[in-house]
Structures are given as structure tokens and as C-alpha cells.
């Protein structure tokens, strides 16, 4: 699928990461084009008991605005939105995000599975999910949900990840539409133009 075809095929991108994820996300966000026509929603495992500066830290690496999610905020194209500490980030509908204090998933809140599952319910085959480095199996159920709803899942090659457990677990549980090094994944995203 060509880059322009990719841009026409997806209405949203969701990304999950954990251990080693800040460095990986710096590369991924740096690759996103300034004219990306879809929203990007990200969960990285964060300590639940203190504020996070992740959106400020990574804002300078990205051509798009980077912000922390607020409950019931509009889902905006061309914007990168992070889950805040101690809240799950959910896609409520095609226009709205929601925050949840439901139980942690695999000891994490925010967790990747709730974001991926809610986005899959909303966007179906028009969703691209990207799972990066991490040291838990969070994301495996979410990748399965994305693929069951006809969406596309790209997973970082476990041997390329700082922490291979998360991508390896998702691959074993749900498979993937592409297994990519971080460099290859960033190259694909960089070509993602309208």
C-alpha cells in the first residue's frame, strides 16, 4: 500500500508503548508529517501517583501539536494526544475522547488495551494501531481487537525493541499486519500524507 493510499485508508492512529517507549516515541513523533490528516492517540505506561511531563517533553520532537488528554475533548485531526497519569484514554465516538478510572489493566492505568479496544469499536477497518517496546503483555488484547474489527496493526520487531516482551506477546496472541524495525516504522509514518 502506497503512502497516499495509507493516508486515505485510516481515520485514526493509536500507539502503545511502555519500557523504552520515550525514546521510541521521540523517533515516531519526529517522523509524523506536519500535514498528517488524522488524530494520533498514545498510551505510554506512566507512574499513577504524579503528574507527567511526557507531552511537553515530546512536543519539541513533533511537527504536530502534542497535548495531554482532557475528558470529553474533541478528537482532532493532526493532533497528538497522550493519556494522562492514572486515567485510561478511550475513544468515546468519532468526535470525542473520554477518560476513565476503571480498574488498572495488568497493573497499568493508563493501559494500552482500553485505548486500542475502544478505538477499534469506533473506527473498525479505518484504524491503524502501532505497538512499540514494552515489558508487559498490555496491548495484546488491544491488537487482537483491532484486527478482529478489520483494522491494521503494526508491531515493532521484538529483536529491535529495548524491551521485547510487549511486541512479542502481541505477536504471539494476535499476529500483525506488519512487523517492523523502529526505523522502518518511522519511514512508513513519514510518508503518511493526504
UniProtKB/TrEMBL annotation:
CDD domains reported for this sequence: CheB
Cross-referenced PROSITE patterns: CHEB
A GO term for molecular function: protein-glutamate methylesterase activity
Active site residues of this protein: 18, 45, 138
EC number: 3.1.1.61
Domain CheB-type methylesterase per the UniProt entry, residue ranges: 13-194
Reactions catalysed according to its record: [protein]-L-glutamate 5-O-methyl ester + H2O = L-glutamyl-[protein] + methanol + H(+)
Biological-process GO terms, alphabetical: chemotaxis
InterPro entries assigned to the protein according to its UniProt record, in alphabetical order: CheB_C, Sig_transdc_resp-reg_Me-estase
Superkingdom of origin organism: Bacteria
Keywords: Chemotaxis, Hydrolase
Protein name from the UniProt record: protein-glutamate methylesterase
Organism: Stenotrophomonas panacihumi
